[in-house]
Each structure stands twice: as C-alpha cells, then as structure tokens.
Amino acid sequence: MTGRLGNPARLWWLAGAVCVAIAMLLPLVWNHTGADLKVYRLGGSAILADPSTLYGARLRDISMPFTYPLFGGLLMVPVSLLPWPVAYAASIAASLVALVAIWRLSLRKVLGRTHPAVLVALVAGSLLLEPVRETLSYGQINLILCAIVLYDVLDQKHFSRGVWIGIAAGVKLTPLVFFGLLLVTRQWRALLQATAAFAATVALGFLVAPRTALDYWTHLIGDTGRIGGLAYSGNQSWNGFLIRLTGDLAGGGRAWQAMVGLTVIGGLWVTWLLWRRGEQLASVSACALIGLLCSPVSWSHHWVWILPQGISLLCVLRGRWRVIVGALWFGLFLVAPIWWPPRRNNLELKWTPLEQVAGNAYLWLALAGIALLVVASKSGEPVEPAGEVVASGGGDLQHLGVGLELADQAET
C-alpha cells in the first residue's frame, strides 16, 4: 500500500511548504552581503586596469586582497563588469544551480533517479546548512567548484574526465587534492588530462602577466597572512585547531606538518578503499576532507562537501542508524557549534576544553563521518545505482533514511 506522502501531488505541496519556510528563515542568518564576491570583482577589475596590481589592490570597506591564482582573476573579469546588484544576484543563482547539481549527482550515484519534488525540498532545506548559507551570503564559489568536481569524478562517460578538476584547481588551489584520488584509483588518463588542464591555466597566467604570475607562484602562494586570522573559529583545519589549542599564532609548526602527513596517507587510503568497494561518492567526499583538514586555512564555507558525505552516510548505514546519524550530521551543520564559543580578537586562544570541543566541531564530525563510512560500507564489487527509485516519489525519502513507508517494494 502506498503511504500518504507517496502521491506526487502531495510531494509537491510538501516541497512548496519547505521552500516557503526556508525563504522566511534564511534572511535571519544572512550576514555578509557578498564580501568575497567584492574581492573577486576587485581581481577582475585589476586584471582589466593593470594586472601587476592584482595582489596589491584593496577595497575601502574590505581589507582582504585577492588571493587566488591569476587565472582566477581572469575568470572574474566579466563579473567585474556587471553592476553590483546583478553580479550578486548572478552569484547566488549560479550557486543555487550548483547546489541542485550536487544533490542530483550525489543522489543519482547512490539511488538512481529522484522525484523532482523531493529534489526541490532537499535543495531548499540544505540552504540552511551553515557551509551552504555562508557560501551564498559571502558570494563564494565553493558550491560551483564542488559540483564541477563531482561531475568530473562521478560521470565516468564523458571524454574530458579530469579536465574540469584541473580547471577548478586553476581557479582555486584546493581542488588539487583530487589529483590524489585519480592517482590512487589509477585513473591515468583522467590524471594526465587534469594535469594538462591545470598547467594550461598556469601558463595562461604567465602569458597575461609574467612577473605577477611568477610572484604569486614563488612567494604569495605560501603567505597565509593574506587570507585572514588563522586563529579565528571559522578556520576549521588542523592548523586552526593547533593554533587555538597552543596559542601560537605563527601556526601549528611541526605538529601540524605531522598531522598533515598522517591525514594525507590515511585519507588517500580511505579514498582508495571506498572507491574499491564501489562507494564512489563516499570516496570523493573522503578525498575532499583531506584538503579541508590539511589546508592552512579552511573557512567554514569551504565545508560544502558535508553534503555528499552526508548522503553517503545515509546510504551505507542501515535501519534506525540512518535516522540517528542523518539527524545528527545535518542537524549539527545546521546549528554550527563552531560559532558558540567566544570568537574574534583572538578570544579563541582562551577557550576552555569544552569550548575547544564545540569550536572545532567540524573536525570531529569529519573524522567520525569517515570512520562510519569505512565501517559501514560493504566490501565487494562496485554497486550499481538502484535504477528509477521513485516512480511514485516516495522511494527517495525511504532510501535517505527518513523512515517513512511511502511505497511498497513493488513500486520502488
């Protein structure tokens, strides 16, 4: 017997109600009014005016400089030409499209096709997750890069596999971590194409402004002082954790280097293991966490990878654990404990042990999530998607662990 929510019309009503609720709640947590997008536009404007000023230019109301490779500045030229309201609206629209793509790519890999109403509700609900709402509010590109990488890794039929990872790394260096995934899973052609694409972005930068590009790759690339306060609770990385724990503002030092080494080795092993078990979405999520944990600075809005990892957790767990873990996972990223302790002006250096636990919550969640994926994932041959899961619309929620009997097995 089909459950009460199995009717597609009811699902659309539910999706509409979720969208209305999110539209009312989201403005209450929208704080940054496109601060990072303004820096992007600054980079594009500098490229047009004088590329040699790219890394020295500043805005009056924002002290942070442009910190991306020169290729990233080139891509921001069209953005700098748009009026500010149009640019900000376009940034939000592009991120929303990317968010839809993230959900579709993730669900399709583990479940098969998804009813559009369920997809709308999931996308709308995820807008309140702290990394997602911060990305939108700042005008950041994290969701876009996440969608690009997921497409490149999970869609194994397109001939240009690896190229998009290389381009993404040319815009913002963090996607370089996915070269490791291609390496340990022996995807040689994709790795070669990723390397070539990344090298092309670097070469283009040198063609446009040789001295500026040389300065970036030889000096500025390692200058973490240009990125912001490393002790700030928004920096959810091993380096940020060690700075807050030890009080050494210079960085984590050798302890950080040791943690980075262990994380890279262990993370690549987990990446390989999950890929071998057929959990490709979990594998790419694990690889993403290597970059988040090991980067000198991983701001909370970089953590949009909690979406594919959360979906992976719901799909490898069974029974009531799906509901419990799913509620804890997405619930904690909704309330964001990292903002609970005192922060700014280096108040993080005075945290109590309990405040250290809350203020570094994303790190602990990442480790717990990876451990659960390794333990709960099944060994064996790669698992094929479940086909068309939701002819009636109910199977999506059932497979995601909400615990509703929306349709019997014949319908799913």
Structure description:
It is a single chain. The protein has 412 residues and is mostly helical. It has 20 helices and no strands. Helix 9 (163-171) runs parallel beside helix 11 (188-208) and helix 15 crosses helix 16. The longest helix has 27 residues, at 84-110. The chain starts with 7 loop residues before the first helix and ends in a 13-residue tail after the last helix. Mean pLDDT is 86; it is low at 379-412.
| Largest sheet: number of strands, sense, barrel closure | none
Element-by-element helix/strand order = HHHHHHHHHHHHHHHHHHHH
The number of strands is 0
Structural class: mainly alpha
Fraction in helix? 55-70%
Shape: globular
Rg over CA atoms: 21 Å
Mean pLDDT rating: 86
What's the tally of helices? 20
Q: In percent terms, what proportion of residues is strand?
A: under 5%
In whole angstroms, the N-to-C terminal distance is 12 Å
Low-confidence stretches: 379-412
What order do the helices and strands come in, and which of them pair?
Blueprint: H1 8-25, H2 35-49, H3 70-75, H4 77-81, H5 84-110, H6 116-126, H7 130-138, H8 142-154, H9 163-171, H10 178-184, H11 188-208, H12 210-218, H13 238-246, H14 253-276, H15 280-294, H16 306-316, H17 320-335, H18 353-359, H19 361-376, H20 395-399
Helix pairs in contact: 1-6, 5-6, 5-8, 5-16, 8-9, 9-11, 11-12, 14-15, 15-16, 15-19, 16-17, 16-19
Please give a quick description of this structure.
The chain has 412 residues and is an all-alpha fold. It contains 20 helices and no strands. Helices cover 61% and strands 0% of the residues.
